[in-house]
Amino acid sequence: MRLIVDIKKQLPSYLLEVTFDLEGEALGILGSSGSGKSMTLRCIAGIETPTSGKIVLNDQILYDSRKGINLPSRDRKVGFLFQNYALFPHLTVAQNVAYGLKGLSKNATNRRVIEQLEQMKLSGLGDRYPHQLSGGQQQRVALARALATEPDVLLLDEPFSALDTYLRSELEKQLSKTLSSYKGLTLFVSHNLEEAYRICQKLLVLSVGKVVAEGQKQAIFDHPDSLTVAQLTGCKNYSHIQPIAAQKIHAIDWDCTLQTVKSVSSRHTHVGIRAHQITFPETLDQPNTFPTWLVWTSETPHRMTLYLKLGEPPTDPDDYHLQAEVFKEKWERLKNRPMPWFTHMEPSKLLLLNP
Description:
24% helix, six-stranded mixed β-sheet
């Protein structure tokens, strides 16, 4: 299975330009709201028409502006799971799942519907209508409908966004299990890095219609290169820099001098570090270790976010340099230490970033 996308589409506020070549892996498309993620999927599905370019699936041209080819959606072998599910309210669950099945006998259609409902743990619900289902059940019906036609490409547009935390987790596991046996290609749109990271092998990062990063997920996470990609992949700490030597910088916004492993170039304008990579040694004997004051905290069920001021005590709650994240077990050991603490930024974990 191979999908080649090279398209441009003029939108009201910017030009969407997306190019990628996907073969055999699930691709997560990340970006902030309005970056062009959903529009990219809609162009691949044939719901929207690009301004120019081409889309090729397994050597079949779906769209080519130069050749005047633009296959209708029904002929593209593409399954689409919409953000709001888009189930037909007047059709039963079974009828919704069967909707896209054309050219099959009645018996073959029934068999396919039963198989999909069983796979999605919806057996016995075929006669119900969408309004009689929970949000999680509706989502699974929509996924069953998308897969029933045995598409070559499955497009998932923020499929968990309308669900509560527990259902998101359950349906993410269901989706991962389903995709493990799915032989086609998957494109998964999300603004949630962790979600896309768990489901996909590759990532494509969009910012205002432009591809700013593409590749294996760990490579993008470890080496985001630009400030935009670092922010879109969850980096909460960054500072303007002033180069001092080949592997030494002054972090202007953090007011500290740092050693780096990577050599500083004239292109680098910022340094970043991910919140979970900040550590708290008991001594100052490592490079990039500084006296630190805790300004305030926020918590989730499992983690604490610590807002930290380097070098001197804070003057108010907004006077902090860094956010660190630690598990609650670590916090229990840390919280009773007298101030100042010591904060360490491992040189190999520092991200040197282009603007």
